[in-house]
Each structure stands twice: as structure tokens, then as C-alpha cells.
């Protein structure tokens, strides 16, 4: 099987819309926010095998989109698309791949990074909330508003639980 047949076979198995959904997330009416320019409203469209941005003018097929979005070679775009489509590449195509070409991070690595960043964010929010809660509770105590004091305590407890859940998930993933 030659390389052109491989491209055609992948295009039969995998639509441009499926690639965009996998990489950019779900869409409405087959339009997404374009990753190649600052896009406030969805302007990237997938119709059949073609992908086009009506904002910046980018146009191409699913392979070119993968190349440009992930900044990879055509061979890597073919490999990524084949993985998404569940198509096994011919041996000659695999042999041409370089061993040192960049690989996308695994799902577990990506999730671990999301958890770590989320934990940092929540811990920052928690620190700010605690400072605000201390000020609010002092004000509530001086105004003798016990309901406001309990509201502040409950907010702090909820944030503490979220941070602890994230810590457990991060340590479980590692």
C-alpha cells in the first residue's frame, strides 16, 4: 500500500470534524474557535474533508490542521491521524519516522499537569479566601452577625475539601 492510499484510507475513516472535535473539543454547527488567531467567536469550519477559518483565512485538510496545530511534520501528522482513525500504518511509513521526533504527552501526563495546576490555583484562591474570611469574620463578630461568620467558615471548609481532593488525585496519579 503506498502512502497516498494510506492518506485516503485515513480520510475515509476519520472526518475533519472528528479531528477538530478531538483536538479542540465539542462544537456547535461544526464551527470552532480558531487556534491560529485570537478568535472571539467560532470561525473555523469543517465541511466534508475541508477545514477553513473565515477569520484568518487558514485552510487545509485534517493532516495540515494536525501539522500546524501540533507543529509536527507531515509524517507525524499521518501517524497521529492514523492513531485517531484506528488505522495501522504500513511498515515502510513507520521506518521513515525518526526516533527523536516529538511525541504528544500521554493522557495521564496531561491530566497530572491539569491536577497540579488546578491545585495551585485552588490553593491560591484558598489563601485569598482565608484572608478575606478573617477580615469578614472580624467584621461579623464586631457586628454580632453569627450567620455571616458561619457563611465564611463554610466557604473555607469547602475550599479545603477541594484542595484535599486534588492532592489525593495528584498523588494517586504519580
Tell me what you see in this structure.
Helix content is 64%, strand content 7%. The chain is of the alpha+beta class. A 4-stranded antiparallel sheet has the order 1-2-3-4. The longest helix is centred in the C-terminal third of the chain and has 37 residues, at 107-143. The model has no long low-confidence stretch (mean pLDDT 76).
**Could you tell me the radius of gyration in angstroms?**
24 Å
Q: What is the share of helical residues?
A: 55-70%
State the separation between the terminal residues, measured CA to CA: 41 Å
Alpha-beta classification: alpha+beta
Shape: elongated
Biggest sheet overview: 4 strands, antiparallel
Order of helices and strands: HHEEEEHHHHH
The largest sheet has its strands arranged as 1-2-3-4
Number of helical segments with 4 or more residues:
7
- Low-pLDDT runs: none
Overall mean pLDDT score? 76
Q: What's the count of strands? A: 4
Strand composition percent: 5-15%
Amino acid at each position: 500500500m503506498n502512502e497516498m492510499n494510506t492518506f485516503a484510507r485515513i480520510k475515509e475513516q476519520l472526518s475533519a470534524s472528528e479531528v477538530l472535535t478531538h483536538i479542540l473539543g465539542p462544537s456547535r454547527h461544526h464551527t470552532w474557535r480558531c487556534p491560529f488567531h485570537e478568535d472571539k467567536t467560532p470561525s473555523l469550519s469543517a465541511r466534508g474533508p475541508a477545514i477553513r477559518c473565515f477569520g484568518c483565512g487558514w485552510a487545509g485538510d485534517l493532516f495540515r490542521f494536525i501539522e500546524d496545530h501540533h507543529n509536527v511534520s507531515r509524517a507525524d501528522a499521518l501517524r497521529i491521524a492514523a492513531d485517531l482513525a484506528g488505522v495501522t500504518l504500513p511498515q515502510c511509513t513507520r521506518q521513515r519516522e525518526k526516533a527523536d521526533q516529538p511525541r504528544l504527552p500521554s493522557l495521564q501526563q496531561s491530566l497530572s499537569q491539569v491536577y497540579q495546576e488546578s491545585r495551585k490555583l485552588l490553593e491560591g484562591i484558598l489563601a485569598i479566601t482565608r484572608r478575606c474570611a478573617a477580615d469578614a469574620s472580624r467584621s461579623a463578630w464586631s457586628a454580632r452577625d453569627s450567620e455571616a461568620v458561619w457563611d465564611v467558615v463554610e466557604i473555607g471548609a469547602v475550599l479545603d475539601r477541594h484542595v484535599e481532593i486534588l492532592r489525593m488525585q495528584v498523588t494517586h496519579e504519580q
